[in-house]
Amino acid sequence: QVQLVESGGGLVQAGGSLRLSCAASGQTFSSYTMGWFRQAPGKERDLVAAITWIGSTYYADSVKGRFTVSRDNAKNTVYLQMNSLKPEDTAVYYCADMRRPVVTTTPGNYDYWGQGTQVTVSS
Question: Distance between CA 117 and CA 80 in Å, rounded?
């Protein structure tokens, strides 16, 4: 069993920055893929960024050049640095763990989820 706890969300003005953290416990995650998803009201849950155990990364087109995903395997923590935030980035952000070293954008392929953290970007 794996527990994921996100933190770092909040309210920020457009153009500002936030750094989300996701701490994993219960089982080492160093060999797997970690993803950051987001879901706005009335919309589907979409993959924003992901990182494999060897550090390969994926970014949605909408966040390329603004967001950076990283991981610290020694601390069992994955981060999402979000810069140049826009109002359309407003959503609940979830981290997710997939027990395979590949990247997929389908939420159903991920095995464990955090509870989510709200990010609100004001214009």
Answer: 12
Q: For 12-28, what is each residue's pLDDT tens digit?
A: 999 999 999 999 988 76
> Residues 53-57: contacts with CB within 8 Å, 24+ apart?
53/29, 53/101, 54/101, 56/103
CA distances from 39 to 14, 30, 59, 91, 118 (A): 18, 26, 16, 5, 10
Residue type, 21: S
Report the distance separating Cα 2 and Cα 114, nearest Å. 10
What does the pLDDT read at residue 15?
Answer: 98
Which are the contacts of 9, defined by CB distance < 8 A and separation ≥ 6? 18, 20, 93, 117, 118, 119
80 burial via Cβ count (<10 Å: 0-12, 13-18, 19+)? buried
Number of H helices, E strands in the chain: 0, 11
Amino acid at 52: T
